[in-house]
Amino acid sequence: MNSFFIYNAKKEDLSWVNSQYASIGFLPSSIENETIDIAEYNGQKCGLGRLIYIDDNNVELSGIYVLENYRKQGIAQNIIRFLLKDFQQTNKTIWCLPFKFLTPFYESFGLAQVNEVTTIPKSIAKKRDWCHENYETEVVLLYKHI
User: Where are the domains of the chain?
Assistant: First the structure.
């Protein structure tokens, strides 16, 4: 029987987490200001994602990544649901900087594109600039107020 579950990463998982992120050019993680979740399928780590706590009112949904052999099985959706399960009716804003081609996927979770009147936290604006400088693939800024 196949087994699938998601759990909160611990310090001992950080080496694996950051090796995955390094392999795809994502910024490294830190346990101190993040919740990092890891997905396992039949005992093998197969995906991960994180929430970065910006301040009392803002978090960033980031680093959603599924290893190639495990894609198209709903793992990314499950990671996001697991990460966001505690963020219902919290009066917080969730920010996300996905590659543009993933916009419909993230919109399915209620995230929307930022407009001109949206106030963007400085750390998110800085990361958006970093993404534009470091990735060939275009990124977009999405958000959702919960």
Answer: 4-145
Residues 115-135: pLDDT tens digits?
776 789 999 999 999 999 999
Q: What span, in angstroms and rounded, lies between the C-alpha atoms of 17 and 5? A: 16
CATH 3.40.630.30, applies to 4-145: yes
Contacts of 91 (CB under 8 A, 6+ apart): 57, 145, 146
Measure the CA–CA gap between 115 and 42, rounded to whole angstroms.
42
The alpha carbon dihedral of 142, 72, 40, 2 has a sign of positive
In Å, how far from its chain's centre is CA 53?
Answer: 12
Q: What is the pTM of this model?
A: 0.90
